[in-house]
Every structure is written in C-alpha cells, then in structure tokens.
Write a structure and sequence with these properties.
The chain is an all-alpha fold. The protein has 17 helices and no strands. The two termini are about 10 Å apart.
C-alpha cells in the first residue's frame, strides 16, 4: 500500500477529460482526503481482524450480546473497506499505467509482487509459532506454492495490485466500458457464489471493478471529492445504511448485483466522509498520517495480532464476570490501537536497522536517469 501522491498538472487549465476546475483543484495538491480514507480503511481492516480472529474466539461469559454486536458491525463495513481502498488505488495509478512496460513493470508490478512474496514467507514462518490463531497460512510446500500463484494469502491486497495493474496495462486498447462491464460481471458472479473462491480469491475477483473504476473514472471521483458537502454526506450515509438494511432484511447478500450496488454506495459515502473529515484536523490529521503508512501496518499487523492472540486469549477467557464486563465493550478498540502502535514501532525499528528491503524492491545499484515523477 504505497503512499499516494497526486500529480501536479502542467498548467492551471482543466484537463481534456472535462473534469472541470474543481477536479483540477482536487488533483493539484496532495489529496488529504485520500490519505484520510486510506487511514480509515487500514484502521477498519485491523479492527476487523482483531474482532474475527481474536475477540470472537474468546470465551465471553458476560450475559450481554456485545461480542455479537462487534461482529455485526464489522460485517456491515465489508462493502466499504476494500472497495474504497481499491478505488483510491485505481485513481492514483493513472499516470503509472501510461508509462512504458519497462518502467511500470519495475515500479508497480515487480514491486508489489516482491513485497507479496517476501512477506508471505515471513508470515508463513511467524504464524507457524501460533498454530491456534485462526487465519490462512501455508502448512506445506504445496500450500505455499498455491498462495504464491493462484490463491493469495492474507496479503492478497499486494498480489491484487500487481495483477490489476498488469491487466489494466494489457487491455488499454480495449474500450473501457467493455472492460469495466466485464469486471463488474466478474464481481457479480463472485458475490453470488457462482465461482469457486478458496482462500482470498473471492476478494481478488470482486474488487477488480473498483480498481478499474478508480482508474477509468478518475475525473469523476475527483469531482465527487471536490464538490463534497454536508448534505451529500448525510444522504450517502443514509443511502449506505438503507441498502445495508434492505439487503439484510431480504437476505439478499447473494442476489446478483446487490453486493456490487451496496459497495458502490459505500464508496460514494467513504469518499465524501473522508473529504468532510478535513474540517476536524484533530481527527483527520492522525488518520491521514496513518494513511501514509498503510504498507507497514498491512504487512506487520497480522503476526503482531497472532502473538497477542497466543498471549491473551486464554487469560481473558478465564477472567471472572466482573473483569470481562469491564473489558468486553472497549477491548477491540484497545487491542486495535495496540496492534497499530506496535506495527508502526516495528516498522521504525526495521528501517532504523537498514532493513528497508522489507518495504521496497531493492534497486541493486540502478540509478534513476531522470527526475522522480510525482505519482510514483
């Protein structure tokens, strides 16, 4: 999850896309809203993993349905987290997609595949020390080969970015509406359970459409961000809550097209909320700072959580009713904050130890021949 930088236009005139002055202003400075959105997404990813992989594995005996409420909340955010993440990734991949294969292949495709492969090996080794931790892991050479190729691991976001970027470059000459329609169809049939999706393959299939939408519809996303209002925030929130409620009441999660529709509404709400959050710097600035550090959090947090699970699941399960009652409501928030803090601290320690090759493809002495372009 690389830091997003928005390219500066060569002149203060609207681009040929017809995005208009508002969209140009949204793309002419660093997109604070994008960093806020990324920070919120990685926060929600970690919170979701804390809830489903640890919190719900604890033997709670408090007599109130608080654990179930945390699980339900996490499920309601599923249409928001990764679709919004991939939409933003697509928006800011536009410049790189237009670069030659030699350049784009190293900075994007090889870079993401390298990070995926090296952290897959690290996760495989570290998660072996926590066999009771409920998460995907390679238990054999065959499993590892599958995770490297056809069924990505918990690190599938990195794998997906490499795959999506390669596909986007390969189909550049095909009409965009046709490509977007094919990706939408793939998302629909996947959500409907019509495809075999072991491991994290389902997420891989379902989210391609959001990356391509961010890439192809970039001017409209930027315009949407530049014209966000409180009224739109309220309407998109009510729309998101409404379609979630309708989907739940009707049991329509697997109805063709429903999940895609809910996710589109969620992305519209997420972009609007990220923009409007800028009115409260005390809230938005920490999220934006986190959004600029999503990669280390994403690759480090799972082993940290596995260690926490090994150390805490037994003692917390054995607490008396009073102790659990004091913990049950805020426990996911406290543990999420701890996992985030430890992940960032480990990143600082690793980079201080000059292990930067864990977070970027080494250049092996290759010298850049031109100035670094914004948007890399």
């Amino acid at each position: 999850m690389t830091t997003l930088r928005v390219p500066r236009p060569a002149a203060p005139t609207p681009p040929a896309t017809g995005a208009g002055p508002a969209a140009v202003r949204a793309g002419s400075e660093r997109a604070q809203w994008a960093d806020v959105a990324k920070g919120a997404c990685i926060l929600l990813v970690v919170l979701w993993h804390v809830v489903v992989k640890h919190y719900l594995q604890i033997d709670w005996h408090v007599g109130v349905p608080v654990p179930g409420a945390w699980g339900l909340l996490g499920e309601q955010l599923l249409p928001l987290r990764m679709p919004l993440f991939f939409t933003i990734s697509g928006v800011f991949a536009a410049n790189a997609v237009n670069r030659p294969w030699r350049v784009a292949g190293r900075t994007r495709i090889a870079g993401f595949l390298y990070l995926y492969a090296i952290w897959l090996l690290i996760h495989t080794a570290l998660l072996a020390a926590a066999p009771g931790f409920p998460t995907d892991r390679a238990r054999s050479g065959t499993d590892l080969l599958a995770q490297l190729t056809i069924t990505p691991s918990n690190l599938w976001y990195l794998y997906a970015l490499a795959l999506y970027f390669t596909l986007a470059k390969a189909v550049r000459r095909i009409p965009r509406p046709a490509v977007l329609a094919a990706a939408a169809a793939l998302s629909v049939v996947t959500a409907a359970g019509l495809l075999d999706t072991p491991g994290n393959r389902g997420g891989l299939y379902q989210n391609l459409v959001f990356f391509l939408a961010g890439l192809y519809l970039r001017p409209y996303v930027l315009r949407w961000a530049a014209t966000a209002t409180d009224r739109r925030l309220a309407l998109t929130f009510l729309g998101y809550a409404g379609v979630l409620a309708l989907m739940g009441v009707a049991g329509a999660e697997r109805w063709p097209g429903v999940w895609l529709l809910v996710s589109v509404v969620a992305v519209g709400f997420g972009v609007t909320a990220a923009v409007r959050a800028g009115r409260w710097p005390g809230f938005a600035d920490p999220l934006a700072a986190l959004g600029r550090r999503t990669l280390p959090v994403y690759v480090i947090h799972m082993p940290v959580l596995a260690l926490a699970h090994r150390c805490l699941v037994g003692p917390v399960s054995e607490l008396g009713g009073t102790g659990q009652a004091l913990l049950v409501l805020g426990y996911p928030v406290l543990l999420t904050a701890a996992v985030l803090g430890l992940s960032l601290a480990l990143h600082r320690a690793l980079t201080a130890a000059r292990l930067t090759w864990l977070f970027a493809l080494p250049r092996f002495g290759i010298r850049r021949t031109g100035p670094r372009q914004r948007g890399d």
